[in-house]
UniProtKB/TrEMBL annotation:
This is GntR family transcriptional regulator. The keyword Transcription applies. Keywords: DNA-binding, Pyridoxal phosphate, Transcription, Transcription regulation. PROSITE patterns: HTH_GNTR. PANTHER family: HTH-TYPE TRANSCRIPTIONAL REGULATORY PROTEIN GABR.
Length: 479
């Protein structure tokens, strides 16, 4: 990494620019050999470099940072790149300017009674993207190109032709070419799941799913008077033999799967297992709902079930996990036009349409490439946060916006979540995802809800300390 900056008493430089300061020049030299070129904007690489150095202690509070022109010369970049990096590093609270004395590593900010949310699965702020500027620019372009009255009135349920075409284009990397006539634009994935249950099951019907799954599904199942049956899994996901036995005994007609970077376990079902599941489902005429919000995050992800067998699968993907939950936009691809119409009729019982303004913004971003640019930034930030979590917690680095952490024997999931809450941390225990008797003892750690990366790092360190403490050895304090 980088060398320790000069500390201790210093004489004030005669110029604001400390390029000629010998201390700064000497201290800067290790940066040149340690900072390797990589992918992404150079200024973001430099900020990440500083952040890692602060995190691992190579840089300490009060260390002097080399002057901007010195770093520009050493790293072979222009001064504008360094200035952008310094601005971003100041925004993250990594460095601070002290006038003519130069720039220094900041002291940690005191977090007073601030709760850090590691329980909510949302995408992290994208690297190198000014979201405020994108919103201002996007909404301005919408108003220039669209009639404001049209953006504030009722629209066609399920999206218009242009909306469905944009959605098909967004899904093409996962599914290949998609007929827009089979696409529905929905006001979030939860509404789409509920509508699927209404459209393709009846009260008291059994819905099949894995024992650990997204909590929104069992909630909808219970509210709509259906039953949920958990199917056993192994290291590759749902077991085909267990699925076949359940199909025979329950006569179920709907199977829910989240096969890529599954929520909560972050496991990905291999293609061979996907094909086995499809064969069993076809044999018993079971319709599959594939909830696939994380496919884009997974390196070398297997093809979705809907690509392998489009006539069997209802494919659901939401922008809430890739771009922003504030867009409230999800896409559903149905096997055929008839099932598409049946779904839309059911959706009307929950919502007439997606919100026109945010939906129009999402479609514009997809069409002009902004959505892809935002996602690239989200994925880069998620990758860095996964690296931070692995380094801090001693786990394997994964992909996506959450990780599944198996607990030591002296911690139970509910107890750990309660103890974390006392420490000002929110984590999701395995009990929040279990259907039937619990066999897991783990927590899901979500990495995106905390906007500030340094705050996330501090929270992960606190969690690591808590995980390492033996609860049985702790004395209880009564006040």
């Amino acid at each position: 990494m980088c060398g320790r900056m000069t500390q201790g008493p210093m004489t004030q430089p005669t110029r604001n620019d400390a390029d000629s300061n010998p201390d700064t020049d000497t201290a800067a030299s290790p940066w040149a050999s340690a900072f390797a070129r990589g992918s992404g904007p150079r200024y973001v690489q430099l900020v990440d470099f500083i952040e890692r150095a602060v995190a691992d202690g190579t840089l300490a509070p009060g260390d002097r940072v080399p002057a901007q022109r010195v770093l520009a010369n050493l790293l072979g970049v222009d001064l504008t790149t360094i200035t952008r990096a310094f601005n971003e590093a100041r925004r993250r609270g990594l460095i601070e300017a002290r006038g003519p004395l130069g720039t220094f590593v900041s002291a940690p900010r005191a977090e007073l009674a601030q709760r850090v949310d590691l329980s909510m699965n949302i995408p992290p702020p994208p690297v190198g993207i000014d979201t405020n500027a994108l919103l201002r620019e996007g909404l301005s372009r919408l108003l220039l190109r669209s009639d404001a009255d049209l953006l504030m009135t009722y629209h066609v349920g399920g999206g218009g032709a242009a909306d469905c075409t944009a959605a098909a284009n967004w899904l093409a990397p996962a599914l290949g070419p998609v007929d827009p006539a089979r696409v529905a634009v929905c006001p979030g994935a939860q509404a789409a799941l509920a509508a699927l249950l209404v459209a393709f099951t009846s009260p008291s019907d059994t819905i099949l799913a894995e024992p650990l799954l997204y909590p929104g599904l069992p909630h909808a199942v219970a509210q709509l008077g259906r039953r949920l049956e958990a199917i056993d899994t192994d290291a590759d996901g749902m077991r085909p033999d267990a699925l076949e036995a359940a199909c025979r005994s329950h006569g179920a007609r709907l199977l829910y799967l989240n096969p890529t970077l599954q929520n909560p376990t972050a496991a990905t079902m291999p293609e061979s297992r996907r094909r086995e599941i499809l064969r069993v489902a076809a044999r018993y005429d079971v319709r599959i709902v594939e909830d696939d919000p994380y496919w884009r995050f997974a390196p070398d992800a297997p093809p979705p079930l809907a690509r392998l067998a489009p006539s069997q699968v209802c494919y659901l993907s939401t922008l809430s996990k890739t771009l922003s939950p504030g867009l409230r936009t999800a896409f559903l691809v149905m096997p055929d036009v008839a099932s598409h119409a049946r779904f839309l009729a059911a959706l009307r019982t929950f919502s007439l349409m997606a919100a026109p303004l945010t939906n129009a913004l999402a479609m514009q971003w997809i069409a002009d490439g902004t959505a892809a640019r935002i996602f690239d930034g989200v994925r880069a930030e998620a990758h860095e946060r996964q690296r931070m979590a692995a380094q801090t917690l001693g786990s394997s680095a994964g992909a996506g916006i959450h990780l599944w952490y198996a607990l030591p024997s002296y911690w139970q999931a509910r107890d750990l979540a309660a103890a974390a809450n006392i420490e000002g941390l929110a984590v999701a225990p395995s009990t929040a995802f279990e259907q039937g008797p619990g066999t897991a003892n783990a927590i899901r750690i979500s990495l995106g809800a905390t906007a500030d990366r340094s705050q996330l790092q501090a929270a992960l360190r606190r969690l690591s300390t808590l995980l390492a403490s033996n609860r049985s050895a702790q004395s209880q304090v009564i006040v």
